[in-house]
Design goal:
single chain, alpha/beta, Rossmann fold, Immunoglobulin-like, 2 domains, eight-stranded mixed β-sheet, four-stranded antiparallel β-sheet
Length: about 375
């Protein structure tokens, strides 16, 4: 009944064209118990928004020049998303070429940055992202399965590149979706709801994209000194295995503000059986606290971002109550670097503690499950 009342309230605002500043929860939501087995919860309760900084590049540049918190995040984590080369790779008929390896090449022929095109043939490349490079970008190179498709001087390249592969590489109709979730005590106000939302997402994605091979995986993580640091169920096609894994998790541990984000991210990227021929490789990072801040962690985060970009794994953060502004900007920097997008849980549902308002333009409030299904579908078709 509570869910139905909230749904009607939100639907009324959506239909009237209102966005984030017009929705107020009218009902008190039930609190799940601590055992992770509350069966009274239903999906379609948690609300969220999405903001893609690549699609809103001018807005990002305005923040870059004016926002102190973004400047501090760039300085702290040494990820500087400013010098961007947005490209679209198609064949001569205009069809998108997914899973093409696209690289920035310097005057000595060395690779400065490389990434993979997604299902739409799009990719953002970066210069000076993780460190200042004394060399200069001189060429753009496109390869697929080892075949050189394109190598041209930068000043002769537009943002749309047509290639003519000797044989059309058919990406495997596989979609890989990994959920890496903070399960420390501070997530206790939202984890039980999130488990229900994610169960709905996984089930409906399997139904809606029945023509594709869907692989899902999940990891929960805590921090050093807790019962565990990471607990994974790696990518696989058995939906029941992943759902049972999620149902068995609960929030505990932690204690300090920072958590073992870097370890969870590194293992999710390095230890999963990611398929380079899949049409989509998506890593949803669900958290309410930043990584620890020290030299080893900074380098680990940087390495994970670079590897994700190289392997065409989109990092899509989903932030919950508890994050601060610098964590928000770190998540957005990670999303930008890997051609992902930024998702944030909002206060409109009344679930969990107070969330900060993101530093973004106007966004639409959606139910989290619907938002995630929309993103997965967009990146898979």
């Amino acid at each position: 009944m509570v869910k139905r009342l909230l749904s009607l309230i939100l639907l009324g605002f959506f239909l009237s064209g209102c966005y984030y500043d017009g929705i107020t929860p009218e009902a008190e939501l039930s609190n799940p118990n601590d055992n992770g087995d509350d069966t009274s919860l239903e999906p379609g309760v948690i609300t969220a928004g999405e903001w893609n900084d690549s699609d809103n590049w001018d807005f990002w540049l305005s923040l870059y020049n004016q926002n102190e918190e973004l400047g501090l995040a760039i300085s702290r984590w040494e990820i500087d998303a400013l010098h961007r080369y947005p490209l679209t790779i198609t064949d001569v008929s205009g069809n998108a070429i997914p899973n093409a390896e696209v690289s920035l090449i310097d005057e000595n022929g060395a690779t400065m940055w490389r990434s993979m095109t997604d299902n739409s043939g799009k990719v953002d490349l970066w210069d000076d992202l993780l460190e200042y490079q004394a060399s200069t970008v001189t060429q753009i190179r496109v390869r697929q399965q080892g075949e050189l498709l394109f190598l041209q001087p930068l000043d002769q390249v537009s943002d749309s590149i047509q290639v003519n592969p000797s044989s059309i590489e058919t990406s495997e109709r596989k979609v890989q979706i990994m959920f890496t979730i903070d399960a420390t005590g501070s997530m206790g106000d939202e984890l039980e709801y999130l488990k229900v939302e994610l169960e709905d997402v996984i089930n409906r994605v399997h139904q809606n994209l029945s023509g594709l091979q869907i692989e899902t995986g999940a990891m929960v993580y805590r921090d050093e000194g807790d019962d565990y640091v990471t607990r994974p169920e790696w990518l696989n096609s058995d939906v029941g295995v992943v759902l049972d894994f999620l149902k068995g998790q609960s929030a505990n541990g932690g204690g300090d503000y920072e958590e073992a984000v870097h370890t969870a991210l590194q293992e999710s990227i390095d230890l999963n059986p990611w398929d380079s021929t899949a049409i989509a490789r998506l890593l949803f990072l669900v958290l309410d606290a930043p990584p620890h801040e020290n030299r080893a962690v900074v380098e680990s985060i940087q390495n994970s971002v670079e590897k994700a970009a190289q392997r065409g794994i989109k990092i899509i953060p989903v932030t919950a109550s508890g994050i601060d502004k610098q964590t928000e900007f770190l998540m957005r920097l990670m999303a930008l670097s890997t051609n992902g997008t930024y998702v944030f849980i909002t206060n409109h549902s009344g679930v969990g503690e107070e969330k900060i308002e993101p530093t973004v333009g106007q966004y639409e409030v959606e139910f989290l499950n619907e938002l995630l299904i929309r993103l997965i579908t967009e990146y898979s078709e």
